[in-house]
């Protein structure tokens, strides 16, 4: 076979391949070995699926419905190219009794459209908008495997890990942010055996590339030339993007801009002094000197006084996370959260903002019980010792690796196993005991 990502080589008998694959699948689910001629991409995916605790008789879980689904879809970057997907794949799907599906970077289906009778059949296995079809949720499948590997892939019949999905064939390709290269999700075509052809995989690849080209032409509002953007999450020194320039700020200047961006009405000198300095001996002269240096760095016009305020709108990444949390777009909020706000800052007001933002997000993640989002948090530097997050993850994804990490963390922190009660109103971190 010339392309390992294509399910059937030219001239292969689909019916015979289905029989071979079913026997191989039965061997794997009973003995744990993968016989030939199962493709290596499929064999490795089956093994990942088994390690994630997926059972061959499982089913997809619907996680977003109604208003939550609508809110999340409206904010997702792939919403901008849905008209393109419909134009290029929609007619093909309807005429061929197939389905057009689009998922996010975690394998959650956002749109499923196409032939009505095929949709009704797909509904029976929860191949519907809002359902999670990641590999870790339902095993080998084209959209889930495509985002897991960041590769376009075709999955034929009994190559699917879950038995109820094995009558289907699908081909999917990941779609990337053209500016950052980050995987945004995948576009998928799902139907019967007729899709087991190299052309279907080549088709979705081409559609994905067309979507990336169109996204490159669309300037996001937060990146428009007339918008000033402050990036302070996960950085000790913030970056300000304005007038096409990138300005790296000192730690103190970072703190000042974070606070002024949050208070567009402005802050008096006394308010800013209390917000920035825990040491009451710091004088207003020190603050005025810092502001004078910042004004020279930013150029004329952006920083005004009496009260101190920014004369142009500044979009901060911290505000983006807060806004998405407030609207219930948890996935989008988690993706925008690249780390604690100015983690090395000791400024009293920044410390409060940092804690409030992190606690708000982690509390929402623990309550939502999304295994992929919890895993992202727990494996990040700021979540690796977060006992409550690891316990929540172990409850929804009890793999051996997760259970081992949880046991080690409980032993390290010398706390008893079992759920930890959350204080009313907010979550707290369990810190390591002092040495």
UniProtKB/TrEMBL annotation:
Q: Which GO terms describe its molecular function?
A: DNA binding
Keyword Transcription regulation in annotation: yes
Keyword match Transcription regulation: yes
Gene3D superfamilies assigned: 3.30.450.40, Winged helix-like DNA-binding domain superfamily/Winged helix DNA-binding domain
**OmpR/PhoB-type domain mapped to chain residues:** 244-310
Q: Which SMART domains match?
A: Trans_reg_C
Question: Which domain of life does the protein's organism represent?
Answer: Bacteria
Alphabetical UniProt keywords: DNA-binding, Transcription, Transcription regulation
One GO term under biological process is: phosphorelay signal transduction system
**By its UniProt entry, which InterPro entries does this protein fall under?**
GAF, GAF-like_dom_sf, OmpR/PhoB-type_DNA-bd, Sig_transdc_resp-reg_C-effctor, WH-like_DNA-bd_sf
Q: What is this protein called?
A: Transcriptional regulator
């Amino acid at each position: 076979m010339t392309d390992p990502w294509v399910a059937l080589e030219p001239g292969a008998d689909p019916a015979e391949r289905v029989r071979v694959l079913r026997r191989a699948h039965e061997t794997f689910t009973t003995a744990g070995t993968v016989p030939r001629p199962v493709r290596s991409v499929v064999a490795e995916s089956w093994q990942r699926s088994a390690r994630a605790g997926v059972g061959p008789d499982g089913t997809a879980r619907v996680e977003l419905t109604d208003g939550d689904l609508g809110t999340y879809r409206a904010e997702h970057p792939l919403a901008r190219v849905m008209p393109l997907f419909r134009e290029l794949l929609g007619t093909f799907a309807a005429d061929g009794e197939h389905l057009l599906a689009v998922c996010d970077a975690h394998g959650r289906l956002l749109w499923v459209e196409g032939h009505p009778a095929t949709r009704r059949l797909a509904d029976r296995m929860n191949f519907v908008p809002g359902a999670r079809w990641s590999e870790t949720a339902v095993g080998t499948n084209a959209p889930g495997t495509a985002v897991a590997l960041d590769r376009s892939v075709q999955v034929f019949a009994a190559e699917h890990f879950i038995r109820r999905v094995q009558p289907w064939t699908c081909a999917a390709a990941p779609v990337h942010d053209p500016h950052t290269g980050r995987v945004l999700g995948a576009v998928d075509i799902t139907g019967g055996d007729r899709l087991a052809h190299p052309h279907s995989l080549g088709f979705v690849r081409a559609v994905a590339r067309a979507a990336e080209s169109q996204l490159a032409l669309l300037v996001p509002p937060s990146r428009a030339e007339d918008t000033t953007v402050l990036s302070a999450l996960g950085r000790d020194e913030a970056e300000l993007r304005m007038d096409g320039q990138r300005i790296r700020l000192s730690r103190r200047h970072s703190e000042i801009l974070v606070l002024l961006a949050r208070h567009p009405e402005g802050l008096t000198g006394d308010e800013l002094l209390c917000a920035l300095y825990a040491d009451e001996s710091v004088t207003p002269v020190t603050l005025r000197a810092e502001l004078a240096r910042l004004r020279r760095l930013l150029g004329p016009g952006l920083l005004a006084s009496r009260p101190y305020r920014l004369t142009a709108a500044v979009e901060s990444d911290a505000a983006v996370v807060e806004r998405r949390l407030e609207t219930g777009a948890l996935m989008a909020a988690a993706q925008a959260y690249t780390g604690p706000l100015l983690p090395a800052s000791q400024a009293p007001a920044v410390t409060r903002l940092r804690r409030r933002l992190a606690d708000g997000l982690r509390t929402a993640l623990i309550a939502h019980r999304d295994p992929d989002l919890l895993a992202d948090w727990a494996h990040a530097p700021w979540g690796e010792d977060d006992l409550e997050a690891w316990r929540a993850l172990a409850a929804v994804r009890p793999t051996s690796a997760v259970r081992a990490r949880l046991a080690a963390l409980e032993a390290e922190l010398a706390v008893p196993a079992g759920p930890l009660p959350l204080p009313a109103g907010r979550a707290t971190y369990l810190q390591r005991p002092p040495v």
